Automatic annotation (TrEMBL):
<dbReference type="GO" id="GO:0000105">
    <property type="term" value="P:L-histidine biosynthetic process"/>
</dbReference>
<keyword id="KW-0028">Amino-acid biosynthesis</keyword>
<keyword id="KW-0067">ATP-binding</keyword>
<dbReference type="GO" id="GO:0005524">
    <property type="term" value="F:ATP binding"/>
</dbReference>
<keyword id="KW-0963">Cytoplasm</keyword>
<protein>
    <recommendedName>
        <fullName>Phosphoribosyl-ATP pyrophosphatase</fullName>
        <ecNumber>3.6.1.31</ecNumber>
    </recommendedName>
</protein>
<keyword id="KW-0547">Nucleotide-binding</keyword>
<dbReference type="GO" id="GO:0005737">
    <property type="term" value="C:cytoplasm"/>
</dbReference>
<dbReference type="InterPro" id="IPR008179">
    <property type="entry name" value="HisE"/>
</dbReference>
<keyword id="KW-0368">Histidine biosynthesis</keyword>
<keyword id="KW-0378">Hydrolase</keyword>
<comment type="pathway">
    <text>Amino-acid biosynthesis; L-histidine biosynthesis; L-histidine from 5-phospho-alpha-D-ribose 1-diphosphate: step 2/9.</text>
</comment>
<dbReference type="InterPro" id="IPR021130">
    <property type="entry name" value="PRib-ATP_PPHydrolase-like"/>
</dbReference>
<comment type="similarity">
    <text>Belongs to the PRA-PH family.</text>
</comment>
<dbReference type="GO" id="GO:0004636">
    <property type="term" value="F:phosphoribosyl-ATP diphosphatase activity"/>
</dbReference>
<dbReference type="Pfam" id="PF01503">
    <property type="entry name" value="PRA-PH"/>
</dbReference>
Length: 108
Protein backbone atom coordinates (compact mmCIF):
# COMPACT_ATOMS: atom_id res chain seq x y z
CA UNK A 1 0.00 0.00 0.00
CA UNK A 2 1.37 3.46 -0.84
CA UNK A 3 1.91 6.23 1.72
CA UNK A 4 -1.23 8.26 0.92
CA UNK A 5 -3.48 5.19 0.92
CA UNK A 6 -2.05 4.04 4.27
CA UNK A 7 -2.61 7.56 5.64
CA UNK A 8 -6.21 7.52 4.37
CA UNK A 9 -6.80 4.19 6.15
CA UNK A 10 -5.45 5.62 9.43
CA UNK A 11 -7.52 8.81 9.06
CA UNK A 12 -10.72 6.83 8.43
CA UNK A 13 -10.00 4.68 11.52
CA UNK A 14 -9.46 7.79 13.64
CA UNK A 15 -12.71 9.36 12.40
CA UNK A 16 -14.56 6.13 13.23
CA UNK A 17 -12.96 5.95 16.69
CA UNK A 18 -14.24 9.45 17.53
CA UNK A 19 -11.77 9.60 20.44
CA UNK A 20 -10.88 13.28 20.26
CA UNK A 21 -8.86 13.11 23.47
CA UNK A 22 -6.23 10.96 21.79
CA UNK A 23 -6.40 11.81 18.11
CA UNK A 24 -5.94 15.05 16.17
CA UNK A 25 -8.02 13.64 13.29
CA UNK A 26 -10.86 12.66 15.63
CA UNK A 27 -10.64 16.17 17.12
CA UNK A 28 -10.97 17.75 13.65
CA UNK A 29 -13.91 15.42 12.94
CA UNK A 30 -15.60 16.52 16.16
CA UNK A 31 -15.12 20.19 15.20
CA UNK A 32 -16.85 19.54 11.88
CA UNK A 33 -16.53 20.09 8.14
CA UNK A 34 -16.31 23.92 8.17
CA UNK A 35 -13.29 23.79 10.50
CA UNK A 36 -11.61 21.09 8.38
CA UNK A 37 -12.25 23.11 5.21
CA UNK A 38 -10.88 26.28 6.82
CA UNK A 39 -7.81 24.35 8.02
CA UNK A 40 -7.17 23.16 4.45
CA UNK A 41 -7.45 26.76 3.24
CA UNK A 42 -4.93 27.91 5.89
CA UNK A 43 -2.53 25.17 4.86
CA UNK A 44 -2.91 26.23 1.21
CA UNK A 45 -2.00 29.81 2.13
CA UNK A 46 0.99 28.60 4.19
CA UNK A 47 2.12 26.48 1.21
CA UNK A 48 1.95 29.51 -1.09
CA UNK A 49 3.95 31.62 1.39
CA UNK A 50 6.56 28.85 1.74
CA UNK A 51 6.81 28.57 -2.07
CA UNK A 52 7.30 32.32 -2.49
CA UNK A 53 9.55 33.09 0.44
CA UNK A 54 10.46 29.93 2.37
CA UNK A 55 13.10 27.26 2.10
CA UNK A 56 12.64 23.98 0.24
CA UNK A 57 12.40 22.31 3.67
CA UNK A 58 9.56 24.63 4.74
CA UNK A 59 7.75 24.03 1.44
CA UNK A 60 8.10 20.26 1.92
CA UNK A 61 6.56 20.50 5.40
CA UNK A 62 3.68 22.68 4.22
CA UNK A 63 3.05 20.38 1.23
CA UNK A 64 2.80 17.43 3.66
CA UNK A 65 0.37 19.43 5.83
CA UNK A 66 -1.84 20.25 2.85
CA UNK A 67 -1.93 16.64 1.60
CA UNK A 68 -2.75 15.41 5.10
CA UNK A 69 -5.58 17.91 5.59
CA UNK A 70 -6.92 17.27 2.05
CA UNK A 71 -7.22 13.56 2.86
CA UNK A 72 -8.95 14.42 6.16
CA UNK A 73 -11.45 16.55 4.19
CA UNK A 74 -12.06 13.78 1.64
CA UNK A 75 -12.55 11.21 4.41
CA UNK A 76 -14.92 13.54 6.26
CA UNK A 77 -16.99 13.83 3.05
CA UNK A 78 -16.78 10.08 2.40
CA UNK A 79 -14.98 10.59 -0.93
CA UNK A 80 -12.41 7.80 -1.47
CA UNK A 81 -8.86 8.90 -2.28
CA UNK A 82 -8.99 6.15 -4.95
CA UNK A 83 -11.65 8.21 -6.79
CA UNK A 84 -9.33 11.23 -6.90
CA UNK A 85 -6.44 9.06 -8.11
CA UNK A 86 -8.74 7.51 -10.74
CA UNK A 87 -9.67 11.01 -11.94
CA UNK A 88 -5.96 11.85 -12.28
CA UNK A 89 -5.47 8.54 -14.15
CA UNK A 90 -8.32 9.50 -16.47
CA UNK A 91 -6.63 12.85 -17.20
CA UNK A 92 -3.25 11.25 -17.77
CA UNK A 93 -1.86 12.10 -21.20
CA UNK A 94 -4.37 14.90 -21.91
CA UNK A 95 -2.59 18.23 -22.08
CA UNK A 96 -4.16 20.92 -19.90
CA UNK A 97 -4.01 23.24 -22.90
CA UNK A 98 -5.92 20.76 -25.11
CA UNK A 99 -8.52 20.20 -22.39
CA UNK A 100 -8.97 23.96 -21.97
CA UNK A 101 -9.33 24.46 -25.75
CA UNK A 102 -12.00 21.72 -26.02
CA UNK A 103 -13.89 23.28 -23.11
CA UNK A 104 -13.81 26.69 -24.81
CA UNK A 105 -15.16 25.07 -28.01
CA UNK A 106 -18.01 23.36 -26.08
CA UNK A 107 -18.91 26.64 -24.38
CA UNK A 108 -19.24 28.19 -27.85
N1 LIG B 1 0.30 13.37 8.93
C1 LIG B 1 -0.23 13.82 9.95
C2 LIG B 1 -0.16 15.23 10.26
N2 LIG B 1 0.40 16.27 9.61
C3 LIG B 1 0.12 17.35 10.35
N3 LIG B 1 -0.57 17.02 11.46
C4 LIG B 1 -1.06 17.90 12.53
O1 LIG B 1 -1.78 18.95 11.94
C5 LIG B 1 -1.70 20.09 12.76
C6 LIG B 1 -1.35 21.24 11.86
O2 LIG B 1 -1.88 22.33 12.35
P1 LIG B 1 -0.98 23.62 12.66
O3 LIG B 1 0.41 23.45 12.19
O4 LIG B 1 -1.75 24.76 12.11
O5 LIG B 1 -0.96 23.54 14.23
P2 LIG B 1 -2.03 24.02 15.27
O6 LIG B 1 -1.99 25.50 15.30
O7 LIG B 1 -1.69 23.26 16.51
O8 LIG B 1 -3.46 23.53 14.70
P3 LIG B 1 -4.92 24.03 15.18
O9 LIG B 1 -4.93 24.18 16.67
O10 LIG B 1 -5.22 25.30 14.42
O11 LIG B 1 -5.86 22.90 14.72
C7 LIG B 1 -0.64 19.83 13.82
O12 LIG B 1 -1.27 19.50 15.05
C8 LIG B 1 0.08 18.60 13.26
O13 LIG B 1 0.61 17.74 14.26
C9 LIG B 1 -0.78 15.70 11.44
N4 LIG B 1 -1.44 14.88 12.30
C10 LIG B 1 -1.50 13.55 11.99
N5 LIG B 1 -0.93 13.00 10.86
C11 LIG B 1 -1.10 11.57 10.53
O14 LIG B 1 -2.36 11.14 10.99
C12 LIG B 1 -2.22 10.02 11.84
C13 LIG B 1 -3.30 10.03 12.90
O15 LIG B 1 -3.08 11.14 13.77
P4 LIG B 1 -3.97 11.26 15.11
O16 LIG B 1 -5.36 11.42 14.66
O17 LIG B 1 -3.45 12.45 15.87
O18 LIG B 1 -3.76 9.97 15.85
C14 LIG B 1 -0.80 10.11 12.40
O19 LIG B 1 -0.30 8.85 12.80
C15 LIG B 1 -0.05 10.68 11.20
O20 LIG B 1 0.25 9.60 10.30
Amino acid sequence: MDTLTRLETTIRQRIASADSGKSYVAQLHARGLPVIARKLGEEAVETVIAALSGSDEELTGEAADILFHLIVLLAEKGVPLADVLAELDRREGTSGLDEKASRAQQEG
